[in-house]
Amino acid sequence: MRMGKKFYIETLGCAMNVRDSEHMIAELTTKEGYEQTENLKEADLILINTCSVREKPVNKLFSEIGLFNKRRKEGAKIGVCGCTASHLGEEIIKRAPFVDFVLGARNVSKITEVLHTPKAVEVDIDYDESRYAFGEFRTSPYKAYVNISIGCDKQCTFCIVPHTRGDEVSIPAELIVQEARKAAQSGAREIFLLGQNVNNYGRRFSGEHPKMNFTGLLRAVSEIEEVERVRFTSPHPLHMDDEFLKEFAENPKICKSMHMPLQSGSTQILKAMKRGYTKEWFLDRAVKLREMVPDVSISTDIIVAFPGESEEDFEETMDVMERVRFEQIFSFKYSPRPLTPAQDYEHQISDEVGSMRLKRLQERHNAMLDEMKSERVGKICDVYFEELRPGGMIAGRSDNNMLISVPGSEELLGKTVKVRITEAGRTSHRGEVVA
Ligand code: 5AD
Ligand code: SF4
Question: What is the pTM of this model?
Answer without folding.
Answer: 0.95
